[in-house]
Every structure is written in structure tokens, then in C-alpha cells.
Write a structure and sequence with these properties.
It is built from three helices and two strands; from the N terminus they run H-E-H-E-H. By secondary structure, it is mainly α. A two-stranded parallel sheet has the order 1-2. The protein is extended, with a radius of gyration of 17 Å.
């Protein structure tokens, strides 16, 4: 086990940042390819964090049927103020 000094912060590992102006389907295709490369028996569960856009949620559910879809609370919180 690696010991962490008090002044050190845990940093993301294998973090990828990618964007496209070609649309959601292009972005999800790239994500699908990344997921396929990482598949294996070591994976115990899969989740997809998504905003409240129903069109995006539907695309994710179709492309990643084994994933549990989780709504990003920050996006949902914006709508809670409208309910009051």
C-alpha cells in the first residue's frame, strides 16, 4: 500500500477529456469503444452519469443497456427550485 503524505492530494488516474461538435451519437460511439477495451471479469458494475435530457438518457440506455443510469443531481437541482 502506498502511503500518502498529509500535503498530497489524490489525483485522477487515466483521466480523459474529450469533446466534439459532431453530436451525441459520435460522442457515445467513442465512449462505447473505450468501454469495450476495458471490459473484463474485474468489472463489478457499470454506471452512466447523465443530465436530465431525455434524448441523451434514451441514447445511453440503448447503447449501454447493462449500465445503471444515474441522474446528475446538479442538473436535477436546477429544476427543484421551479417546483416550489
Amino acid at each position: 500500500m502506498v502511503e500518502k503524505k498529509a500535503d498530497q492530494h489524490i489525483r485522477p488516474q487515466n483521466k480523459h477529456i474529450w469533446a466534439t461538435l459532431e453530436g451525441k451519437d459520435v460522442a457515445l460511439e467513442r465512449l462505447f469503444k473505450q468501454v469495450e477495451r476495458r471490459k473484463g471479469p474485474h468489472i463489478q458494475g457499470q454506471v452512466a452519469l447523465c443530465d436530465g435530457c431525455e434524448a441523451l438518457q434514451s441514447r445511453i440506455a440503448i447503447r449501454f443497456p447493462d449500465f445503471n443510469l444515474i441522474l446528475d443531481f446538479i442538473h436535477a437541482d436546477e429544476y427543484l427550485w421551479d417546483v416550489r
